[in-house]
Amino acid sequence: MLRPILLASVVMLAMSPPIQAAPPPEELRHKLTQTIRKHRPEAQLEVTKDAFTAKAGTMMYTVHSRSKTGEVYERTHQEEGPNFKGFVLSVAVYPGPYQGAAAIPQTLQGPYFQTFLDATPTDKGDEHYLVHFSYGSRLDADLKRAIMDAIPRTQFSRPVIVPEPGK
Questions:
Q1: For 154, phi and psi rounded to 5 degrees?
Q2: Is the CB of residue 82 less than 8 Å from the CB of residue 134?
């Protein structure tokens, strides 16, 4: 009796559509566009049904995939990434809270470039922004700072230090 129910559940899960991403709101896209155009007017900007992307100074890399435990796989694949002065930015909006496996925010150090990852709740809290910002080691510091200031980021509250009485 349990077997048909289990099979039906598996079939329904397999047939359910994947979680659909959306581009960030117009106000954020405008802010990112203005920020990027100020520093890198030649950057390629694109808004798709899934995300806002911006890139400049990119190239194709042949890389080995890694497991979550750090194991390097033998098989390689092609991946676009920034050159030493370039960047790739992607910002998407997903429904619900972030439920990914990665601890965020964090900066991943790859063999050729770094990637900043973050997932910040939207103002309403019913969705979250997923940010991937890859950059080369010699990306213009002003551009990097401007992008980091413009993207939605996790804000940690500072601990309140209450002095002990009599001190």
A1: -65, 130
A2: yes
Sequence spans of domains, the chain: 18-150
CB neighbourhood size of 51 (10 A):
18
pLDDT the model gives residue 5: 46
* CB count in 10 Å sphere of residue 54: 23
Burial category of 106 from C-beta neighbours within 10 Å (exposed 0-12, middle 13-18, buried 19 and up)? exposed
Low-confidence ranges of the chain (pLDDT < 50): 1-17
Dump the DSSP string for 82-145.
EEEEEEEEEEEEEESS---SS-SSEEEE-SS-EEEEEEEE-SSSSEEEEEEEEE-TT--HHHHH
